Every structure is written in C-alpha cells, then in structure tokens.
Ecdysoneless homolog (Drosophila) (Takifugu rubripes), 656 residues
Amino acid sequence: MDFLQRTVVVEDMVQYKLFLLQPDGSDVTEERLTHLAEEILVKFAPLLVQYIWQNQPFNLTYHSEKGGVPAHIGGSTQFGENVEDEWFIVYLLLQITEAFPELAARVEDNDGEFLLIEAADYLPKWLNPDSSQNRVFLHRGEVHILPCPSKFSTVGFSKDVVPSLSQALAELCSHPHVCQASPKICSALKKRLKGYPEKIKTGLHQAHCFIPAGIAMVLAQRPQLVAHAVSAFYLRDPVDLQACRSFKIFSPETRVLTSVTFTRCLYAQLLQQQFTSDRRSGFTLPPHSHPQYRAHELGMKLAHGFEILCSRVRLPSSEPDAPISCNPQWKRFLESLKKNDYFQGELEGSTRYRELMRSAEHFFKQSVAFESSALSPGEEILLLMQNGHPLNLEELKEREQQLPQEDDDSWLEITAQDLDHLLQERTGGRADAASQNCSLTQPTQQLEGTEERKGEMEHIKNEECGYSLIAVSQGMKKFLDTMSSHEGAEVPWDGSRQSFNFDPNSMASALERLLGNEMEELDSDDLDDDDESDKEREEETSGDTEQNGTETLNDLRSYMDQMDEELMSTKIGQSFTVTNSKKTDLDNSSPHLPVNSPPTQGGSEQNEEEIRPLDLDVNLVTNLLESLSCQAGLAGPASNLLQSLGINLPANSDPS
C-alpha cells in the first residue's frame, strides 16, 4: 500500500522542494537554507517581477524535517487553467539547480511525476508510477533518475524498493553522473521548455480597454492584479453580480482608453466569455460594427472583475499596514537587488526607478514575506487607491493618443492544418519513422527555388509519405509482430534499426517454460554425479520433448482441419480478396482459404473445393479504409491505430 504514503497534491497545483546535498553528511541548518532562499529570489527577481501568474506566484520558504522528509526550502503554486505557469516553474528549478549545484529539486503535481509523463516515450521499461517514487530529481540543470542496479553498475535501488528521500539524496550526491537521465529524456523536456525565458514576453498580450480611471491607476502600479480580476469575473456567481448592479467603487462615467497587459490565457478567458451587463450598472456597449467595440467589451468585463474583488472586502482594516522598510528582510533584499543591477543604472527618484521599486516591493510581499503580508486582492486594490495620487482624467485622456499598438490575436484561431501540425509535433518520433518507411516506396520530385518552395516540397513529401498504402501494410505487420504483455501492446514507431542482443539464459528459460519442463536448482552434491546419469537424463528429456512437439503439431493440424470444415459451410470466404492465380498446393508465403465453387454441369451434388491464396496486403488495407470511412472523420479504432504508427491518411473525398 505504498500509494497511501504518498503526498496528496491539490488539483492544478504544483509542489516543489529544494534539498541541500551534503557530501560530508553534516546537518542542514535553518539559517543556511533561509539564506539560500533569499539568494535564489534575488538572483531570479528580474524574471519573477515581470511575470503575471494565473493564481499564485512562485515562493520559497523554509520547511523543517518532518515525516521522513529532510529539511528543505520549497513552496506550492496553484496554476489553475494556465499550465504554462507550471512549466515556467520547472524552467526556474532547472536554472536554480544549475546556478546552485549544491541543490537538488523535486517537483510534482496531482498527476505525480509529470516530468516522466512528458518523456514517456523514452523511459526505461522498469520505470512506472509505482517504481518512480523518490527517484526523479532536478540537479545541475538536468533531469536525474536513480537507476536500478545492473551487471555493470551497483548504483541505484531495485525497482521493487522505494528509497527514502534521505537515501535517494545520498545516492544522488555520491553518483550524480550515473544518475543523470538519458539524452532522449533530457531532450524531450528541453523541447517542452523551448523558448524560455523569451517565452515570458511572447506569452503576453497587449489589448486596448475602456476601463474606469481607478482601475487604470491600479494596473499602472500592480499589473499582476489583472489576473485576479479576470479570475473573479470568469468564476463569478449570482452573489458577486449583485455588487455589480451599481458600481460604487469604479464608476463607468470615468472610463478612459488604456493599454492592458494580459497573458494569453487571461485574454482568451476574458474575450470568450459571453456576458451582458445589468442595465443599472451604467455600462453600455456600442454597436458590434463600431471599431472600438472590443475595447468597450473587454473594459466592461474587466471592470466587473475589479468590482467583484472589492465587494468581497467586508470590513476594511482601520489600522494602516506597517511600511515595508520595517521588515528586517527588506533591507538585505534591497541590497542584494542593487548588487545584481536590478535597477539597470536608473537614477534614484526617476520614473523608471520608482516603477522598478514598486515591482520589487510587490514581489517581496508576495514571494519573500507573503506570510506576514497576507492581503487579499480586494484589500490591496483599495489600499492602492487610498494611498495613490488623485485621479487626473484630463491627463489620462491625453495619454489615449500615445497608446502602443494592440497585439494581433490571430493566435486564438486554429485551423485543421494547424491542429494536425501540432499533433505531428507531439508525435514527432512516430512521424519520422513513418517517413523513413515510405521514403523507400514513394519517389518525390526535387523542387528548386526559394525557401518557401522548399518548405512546400517538404510538406508535400510528408503528406505523400502518410498516404502510402504500402506504409499502412508494413506498419500493421510490424505492429502485429511486436511483443506485448498484460500492460498492453507497444507501438513500433521507432524506425531506426536496433542491435540484436542474444541472452542465452533468457532463451533457455523461455524454451523450458514453452516445453513444460522445470529445472531444479543443483546443489554441490549434484555436481559429483557420473556422466552416464547425465546422458540418460538428456536422452529421456530429448525423447519427451520430441514426443510433446509431435503431439502439439498433430493437435494444431486437427484444429485447422476442423476450422476448414466450419468455414466451408459459410460465406466468409467471399469477404476476402484472393490472388488471381489458382493454386491447389499450399503456398508457404500466403495463407489460403477454402472457397465453395458452384455445382458442376454434370449434376454432381458435391461441390469442388478450390484452395486459393489470400492477398493479405489488399485485405488489410481494404478493411482499414472501410473502417475509416465508417468513422465519418471522427476518432475511432482505425484512425487511432494508424496515428500511433505515424501514418496519416487523407480525408475520404469519394462520397460513395
């Protein structure tokens, strides 16, 4: 019952732990781990400050030893609908362990070891959810998996053993190079993380919105609050909408046009929601044909989200919060930021310097000292409006003429070809294997010209490879020839030739199980027996083997004869395609099927039995195409099987 001992992770939440590796086995102190957490947050502050989290930010705190888990620094982040937050944290952990090689990280979510899920096609056969517990780590910027002992190395733990975290960390510290994952596993994860850290900016979306001036002022100081507002609107209930009947905090009469920064996930959530505001709210939208209709619609939805957040603050605190300068950690944190050139040489007191300072203060409250400053988003909004500068509508109206251009949102639309391309990327290895198979049978013409022409040629070549009926037949044959087990069939998508390894011991044991003989272990006394006894045993064993083999062959022939007799009385033979040549002798290369011929003109009541060889390739392709046609373009067994083999057939253009 090992699964009962595993930590239960909340859905859509990622947990991460950073352990300090101690080669000398010395104890880990709280002071050292806390100092490491501060160094990490300061070093990666330029990335973390500008990031807009869906629900919760990345944070690191000290955790003492408890329940067999050594003392460590770590945290948890609820990423909600934006799974990119989770993978950004994985990227952060890889960068942290590379910058701090004395640290090893573990990360998991409610799916468990989701890093292994991403590299599932390249995992060793012994590694599964039951045997992977406490084996997967991020260390020195790479993935490490504690192996199983083998003939060549004693490093690791048996697949039936669940090592404790202390044992696993000690093994990782002693043999880091042996524990490093295979290049294919590392490449699969790097492919998923491709684009970071530039992906942080490319994942943002700038859009124009007509919003109340108070919201514009709040977002200018805390751009991250847009995530809480969108989530409040997206997950609204009837009680929340009661507060939006009359906007008491953000009046619609003060609306101004401004540029708002979203993540792509937040923008899609806000845009795709169908919503009609209450007539009493004061928010009216122009006609759909109006050039700024979308800006009005987005602003109306965003204003509802901010109003909902503030309405949840029942009793605002009358005591002002202590200034951040009173926190003893802030002074050390600020000094570290200056050493790492966080302010980019800006003069103290300048506009850009104040913006960076506000972002640093917000990041410090959310990630470093978040336990002592647990303000709700609504309380933070009200506090910013209370302490902010008085609103100047004329100045905000003047800024409307200097707004940056909106980003193109064509990424929201995806065509069938784009979807096929994305699926092809996810099954890249299978597609490559299919391309190699069909390249032997499908000649392609060489196109010369520009780079676009070459790309078109490559696309056409891939389509022709996917349409090869010979590739369909060969792929199915390889699939049927592949060994399977009680866990399911393995798809032979890898087209590369693999070396043949022969293990005589495994071969001998397999033959013994097949023939029904059991070998007993020999002790030291058995080795002293004379040769004559051994020869007699061998003769008896060989005689029994030959007799068993003969009986098995006779039984198979009897079964085949009975099957032929049953098939003779049915019409199943008419459903198969046979070769044109009529043969009466058995051909070893093709199966044969008895087919009833019509009565002869001589009045004989007995039908002449005609044996014809089957054309396996034609029957296979015909049945697959009929199955695909019955699916009518939907998912089904035939399309799923061909897709797993890396074979893409075109849509049926024949309506008949």
User: Anything to note?
Assistant: Residues 13-194 form one domain.
